[in-house]
Amino acid sequence: MDIWTVPLIFVVLLILLIGLLSIRKWRNMDPVVHGKDSSIPDAIEEHPYTLNPIFWVILVATFFIGIVIFYYATSFY
């Protein structure tokens, strides 16, 4: 397990960075005024999934787990 300590720390830091950046972006959003939402920005309207931090975290975690599985699957031969 010692071989995976540094990559795991890197992945955790990357996930924390994604979370912090999404919180900073969320705090800068316009609040609801008089019960009406503001208009949806064009970038989000065209690509609603690319700016979702949950998808980025899932992508990073899946990529890391895939590397670990690939490493151990190929090391036995």
Textual characterization of the structure:
There is one protein chain. About 65% of the residues lie in helices and about 0% in strands. The chain is built from 3 helices and no strands.
Protein topology:
Layout: H1 5-27, H2 42-46, H3 53-75
The helix-strand sequence is HHH
Rounded radius of gyration (Å): 18 Å
| pLDDT < 50 stretches | none
The major sheet is characterized as: none
Instruction: Please tally the β strands and state the result.
Output: 0
Secondary-structure-derived class: mainly alpha
What fraction of the residues are assigned to beta strands by DSSP? under 5%
Tell me the overall shape. Answer: elongated
Helix content: 55-70%
Q: Average pLDDT across residues?
A: 82
Distance between the termini: 20 Å
Number of helices: 3
Which features characterize this protein?
mainly alpha; 3 helices; 66% helix; elongated
